[in-house]
Design a protein that fits this description.
- The complex is a heterodimer of chains A (112) and B (114).
- Chain A has 112 residues and is mainly β.
- Chain A contains no helices and eleven strands.
- In chain A, the strands form two sheets. In chain A, strands 2, 4, 5, 9, 10 and 11 form a six-stranded mixed beta sheet that branches.
- Chain B has 114 residues and is mainly beta.
- In chain B, the strands form two sheets. In chain B, strands 2, 4, 5, 6, 9, 10 and 11 form a seven-stranded mixed beta sheet that branches. A four-stranded antiparallel beta sheet of chain B has the order 1-3-8-7, with no helix packed on it.
- Chain B is globular.
- Classes of the chains: A mainly beta (112), B mainly beta (114).
- At the A-B interface, strand 4 and strand 5 of A face strand 5 and strand 10 of B.
């Protein structure tokens, strides 16, 4: 089955800087790549996704890039703020059955 | 916004006891999922369901059973709880036929098995 790897287990940035979280996947049939955010002590919630028919998607300060050839995708958070501090999970899925395979998460710390 | 609720939110159980974790969703989603989250392992899928009456094994089903009696409800059952099942459990729902493939998560249940 699919295996999703998150390359950074922890990431620390200064407020205002950009943060980049990188993920790779193994299944060439994966076509849907969501990202989830988990704040301390809370549940996960969806933040942004990208489908395989595009290679870039932006939602406010969040940018997702997809390189299908390299089977790699990344989340870029620009102008980071303290409230961006959280664990971020990347995931991959084939659209057919909605099963999502998660990476192990990246703890992002934004220092003031 | 999708609504997924879980009960109980916290549970202390004894080794060998039976534990039932409940999940309810009001989104009319076909698919529901049970995950556990442990430090260093991220989210691991235990069981999932495509609709009422269906249950499928995920990646770590041993020691767990699941039940989907209705569209809205999905339960996770630990017949003989063990300390290794101490974890945080998340339920999620999703609809692959809908406009998004994303999953909506419940608030989680903290289970401590003594």
């Amino acid at each position: 089955g699919e295996k999703v790897e998150q390359h950074e287990s922890t990431l620390s940035v200064r407020e205002g800087d950009s943060a980049v979280i990188n993920c790779t996947y193994t299944d060439t049939a994966s076509s849907y790549f969501p990202w989830y955010k988990q704040e301390a002590g809370k549940s996960l919630h969806f933040v942004i996704d990208i489908r395989s028919n595009v290679d870039r998607k932006q939602s406010q300060r969040l940018i997702v890039l997809l390189d299908k050839k390299a089977k790699r995708f990344s989340l870029h958070i620009t102008a980071t703020q303290p409230e961006d501090s959280a664990i971020y999970f990347c995931a991959a899925s084939r659209n057919s059955n909605n099963r999502i395979f998660f990476g192990d998460g990246t703890q992002l710390v934004v220092k003031p | 916004e999708a609504a997924v609720t879980q009960s109980p939110r916290n549970k202390v159980a004894v080794t060998g006891g039976k534990v039932t974790l409940s999940c309810n969703q009001t989104n009319n989603h076909n698919n529901m999922y049970w995950y556990r989250q442990d430090t260093g392992h991220g989210l691991r899928l235990i069981h999932y369901s495509y609709g009422a009456g269906s249950t499928e094994k995920g990646d770590i089903p041993d020691g767990y059973k699941a039940s989907r009696p209705s569209q809205e409800n999905f339960s996770l059952i630990l017949e003989l709880a063990t300390p290794s099942q101490t974890s945080v459990y998340f339920c999620a729902s999703g609809d692959p036929l809908g406009s998004q493939d994303t999953q909506y998560f419940g608030p989680g249940t903290r289970l401590l098995v003594l």
